[in-house]
Amino acid sequence: MILQSKGCEQSRLGFPGVVGLIDGTHISIRAPIKEPDAYINCKKFHSVNVQVICDENMVFTDILAGWPGSVHDSRVLCNSAVYKTAANKFRGNTHLLGDGGYPLQTWLMTPYRDNGHLIADETFFYYVLSSNRQTVERAIRLLQGRWRKLQHIDYLNLKLIVLIIIAACVLHNVCLLHDDFDEGLHA
Residues 122-154, buried b or exposed e (16+ Cβ, 10 A)? Predict the structure, then answer.
């Protein structure tokens, strides 16, 4: 579910109607007992995939954690509640900004594929979209820097792992909403 935040429809450097920024990250875990190979990601370590959507203030408005690390970001998105209910969530000309790992949708702007033949306008679009997306990347870095436990979760219970990740995201929001940007905290 996408939570509404103050001024959710933003006009970000040429992108009116932006209601959020989407990205995925991998949280390192101990190899699960069941289907451990499914949790090996493209960087060859065991992980769970975490999809986050944040607003312009790095506050997470949607979190989906628990997919095996081998699952691509686009597949996580296509199986999410955000994707399945997008017609109701993104009315008018509102949308998310995402990277090239996501499918282009009417409600999800992604960059042009850079095959070496982009024209100047496409290159500018790519640059501006990427610049705006840095907010979600920064939010993820802040989350993982603040809650060091997310560097590696050494439990076997996948439900507990998901709860730890979601709890860290909620605490991240509480800290931001109370103007606590201290990146030196860790759990």
Answer: eeebbebbeebbebbbebbebbbebbebbeebe
